[in-house]
Design a protein that fits this description.
Number of strands of chain A: 9
Oligomer: heterodimer
Shape of chain A: elongated
Strand content of chain B: 15-25%
Number of strands of chain B: 20
Number of helices of chain A: 4
Structural class of chain A: alpha+beta
Largest sheet of chain B: 6 strands, parallel
Largest sheet of chain A: 5 strands, antiparallel
Number of helices of chain B: 24
Distance between the termini of chain B: 73 Å
Structural class of chain B: alpha/beta
Radius of gyration of chain A: 19 Å
Radius of gyration of chain B: 24 Å
Shape of chain B: globular
Strand content of chain A: 35-45%
Chain lengths: 172, 584
């Protein structure tokens, strides 16, 4: 079981997202996150779907997605490609020394403090999802009040062209 | 030219070459029905929206055209859901128009408002809710195109009342193109070559023909392929009629309640070519390792998502059945294939033994259902259209009714909807007014949708319902007998049934009751001579069981009840001894 990222171009029409997510539910595909935004092409939305499953789940999902009328293109990305996620964290901490410790951890991970009050710190981090997981693990002792994760977006890495054979199956 | 949205709908349907719709009017479709009043479009007023959907389904299956349904908002739309799921599962082209409350009332729990669009999402090939009348013509054209191309299916258009009233100048387009939907796939030639090589080398080839052959109108190509390869043909339930069942190479239906000859041939085959089937669990059994374990498996289908979904295939070619088979046949023509006469003899002799089943010829009283099917085989013409309900009666008909032509055996395969057969028969009769249409029904099923006898009478549609009456929900009772220790929970319909003869007569239909072998012929003649829709109540043996069957968890090797289904003890012995095939 692995995390797989699929990027989809779909027509920007009402109901497209509902149809996709209903289909995943029906086919038993474990959806981790979905992000949707306008794409550069007129009338088309860019969707990023992250699922948890094995290769056969990816194959199944691609085939069922391809059957939806409003899907224009489907591409699978993997961990070698550029993957990012945005996370906002609110921590309740009044003690100054503890706050310094939190700042150090933030500096180590490249996270920023974007908002502050005597009782709380609001932190922003943009990183690979695994790095965010580690960051959150490091902050656990500090009593996090809220975490918001945006879901992953990804794009192909252009600098190294690596053959992604594990996600391509010669079907027919 | 300025037109109201409602007129756009009626004009569009006529433009598509559809001359009949099935529906029930209501508040949210008053405008559509107002336009219908002056138009040439024929409308069959059904008595329940579910029946309208099933009738459109039966109409589409028999005619090959798109079935069109009209329903109002709220309960009208929710009533067609079963019919739409039924059609979608069996890949039948339907376009359903549902009324909706005006756009400014949507989402406010208005009177007769239901989230029809939301409900349609998981059950249709595609659906629309139109909020701008100027895109209505293009939307309807898209709907008909999507319903009828690629793997056919159901498209729903939800039309708010105010949109039906608004004016547009837009014309109905001749064609629409889609940004993402590109259903025409030509089969890959290199794969065709590989396929032909495999077929040429086959010593025990079997063809499994599914509903896709019928949808694609590829029955001629199927026969040519079978003859060229010397390959016997078995079918799925949906494929019944794709290959004439009185042909020497026909082995009948495969699967759960299929014929031993069909299941045996699949098991022993060395090359299985499956065309236009989705390998439903009813065809494969549950133990998938027992499905064609010795064969190289080739799958020809129009839907890539069905390839390797249930069974791992060795080769898959995506494309239209007729088109793909055309390529294969052209290549095969170049060298003549040597046919394995022993294989043909073995499998076809087995089929003869299956058709020689003692129950089929049984003349005892009370009547055995298999015997009633035999009598129907003797009475009906080759091009008669038979629809079925669901359950024991359906399986009995699928097993024993000798279907010779495509689009003459209409049955709810994927969803297994009781109550489908009678309204589908109405739709079938509308599609084929000169043919004999018979609904093979169980007593439980018929009661679910029988109120549309009123429709059959009103429109002079002389459908003949043959009720196999055992006062039981038979298939459920059979499972309770074998797998639930005979605890017959809620399956007896004793005291639940009307006098079907009086019931039919109360609608103005013809009714007759029979109970002995040989009586059906005259009853049928009386029904036909009456010129009216008819109900023939055939009292059959109360606790009959349909065999063979595959028990839960079993595969094609685990058929039980065979001794009831084969011609003779020596026939059975001969078949068991065929284990020598596995040594080849």
């Amino acid at each position: 079981m692995e995390t797989h990222i699929i990027t989809v171009l779909a027509e920007d029409k009402p109901g497209v997202l509902a149809r996709m997510t209903t289909m995943f539910g029906r086919r038993g595909i474990n959806l981790v996150s979905v992000t949707a935004s306008p794409s550069l092409k007129e009338g088309l939305s860019r969707l990023m779907l992250v699922i948890h499953g094995d290769d056969s789940d990816v194959e199944k999902m691609q085939k069922h997605l391809a059957n939806l009328v409003e899907i224009v293109s489907i591409k699978t990305l993997d961990k070698d490609d550029i993957v990012r996620e945005l996370c906002l964290i609110k921590i309740e901490e009044k003690d100054n020394i503890t706050r310094m410790e939190i700042l150090q951890i933030c500096s180590l991970f490249g996270a920023k403090i974007i908002d502050m009050s005597p009782e709380t710190l609001t932190i922003e981090i943009v990183e690979r999802p695994e790095a965010i997981d580690r960051f959150i693990a490091n902050l656990k002792p500090f009593g996090m009040k809220e975490i918001y994760r945006s879901g992953m977006i990804a794009t192909t890495r252009e600098s190294e062209k690596v053959e992604n054979t594990k996600f391509k199956k010669i079907l027919s | 030219m300025k037109r109201k949205g409602a007129k756009v709908v009626i004009d569009a349907i006529l433009n598509e070459g559809i001359d009949v719709v099935f529906g029930v009017p209501g508040g949210a479709v008053l405008d559509i029905y107002d336009e219908l009043y002056d138009s040439e479009l024929r409308h069959i007023l059904m008595k329940h929206e579910q029946c309208a959907a099933h009738a459109a389904d039966g109409y589409a299956r028999v005619s090959g055209k798109t079935g069109v349904v009209f329903a109002t908002s709220g309960p009208g739309a929710t009533n067609i859901i079963t019919g739409l799921v039924n059609a979608q599962m069996d890949s039948v082209p339907i376009v359903a128009f549902t009324g909706q409350v005006p756009t400014h009332q949507i989402g406010k729990d208005a009177f007769q408002e239901a989230d029809t669009y939301g409900l349609s999402i998981p059950i249709t090939k595609h659906s629309y809710q139109v909020r701008n009348v100027d895109i209505l013509p293009e939307t309807i054209k898209s709907a008909f195109t999507i319903a009828n191309t690629g793997r056919k299916g159901v498209v729903l258009i939800d039309l708010p009342k105010d949109i039906q009233n608004k004016i547009t100048k837009k014309k109905y387009p001749n064609k629409v193109t889609f940004k993402g939907y590109k259903p025409d796939i030509a089969p890959k030639i290199d794969l065709i070559n590989i396929c032909v090589d495999i077929l040429k080398s086959a010593e025990r080839p079997v063809i499994l023909a599914g509903g896709g052959i019928i949808t694609s109108n590829a029955e001629k190509e199927l026969k040519i392929l079978s003859d060229m390869l010397g390959a016997p043909v078995c079918t799925t339930l949906m494929g019944k009629g794709a290959f004439p069942e009185d042909d020497q190479l026909s082995l009948g239906m495969a699967g759960h309640h299929g014929k031993y000859s069909a299941n045996f041939s699949i098991r022993e085959s060395d090359v299985l070519i499956a065309i236009g089937t989705r390998f439903s669990d009813r065809t494969t059994g549950w133990k998938l390792s027992d499905f064609a374990p010795n064969a190289v498996k080739i799958h020809l289908d129009i839907d890539n998502a069905e390839v390797n979904k249930n069974i791992e295939m060795d080769l898959a070619i995506i494309g239209d059945a007729k088109n793909t088979l055309g390529y294969i046949i052209d290549l095969l023509k170049k060298d003549e294939k040597k046919q394995n006469k022993r294989w043909i003899t073995k499998t076809t002799e087995m089929h003869t033994a299956c058709m020689g089943c003692t129950k089929y010829f049984n003349e005892s009283f009370p009547l055995k259902p298999e015997r009633v099917i035999k009598e129907l085989n003797d009475i009906l013409e080759d091009d008669a259209i038979v629809t079925t309900e669901v359950g024991q009666t359906q399986m009995c008909a699928a097993h024993y009714y000798i279907t010779k032509k495509p689009r003459t055996f209409i049955s709810s395969g994927g969803l297994g909807t009781m109550g489908f057969g009678f309204p589908a028969a109405i739709g079938a009769q509308v599609a084929a007014p000169d043919k004999t249409v018979v609904d093979i029904a169980g007593d439980g099923s018929f009661l679910m949708t029988s109120q549309d006898l009123a429709t059959a009478v009103a429109y002079d549609l002389p459908v003949i319902v043959v009720i196999f009456n055992n006062s039981y929900l038979g298939m459920v009772r059979q499972w309770q007998e074998f797998f639930y220790d005979g605890r017959y929970s809620e399956t007896s319909l004793e005291n639940h049934l009307p006098d079907f003869v009086k019931y039919a007569e109360s609608f103005g239909a013809y009714g007759e009751e029979i109970s002995k072998p040989g009586e059906l012929k005259e009853a049928f003649k009386n029904a036909k001579d009456s010129g009216k829709p008819a109900v023939i109540n055939v009292k059959i043996e109360k606790s009959s069981n349909i065999f063979p069957m595959i028990p839960p968890g079993g595969g094609l090797n685990d058929m039980t009840g065979l001794q009831d289904c084969l011609a003779s003890k020596s026939g059975i012995k001969k078949m068991w001894s065929e284990s020598k095939w596995r040594r080849i």
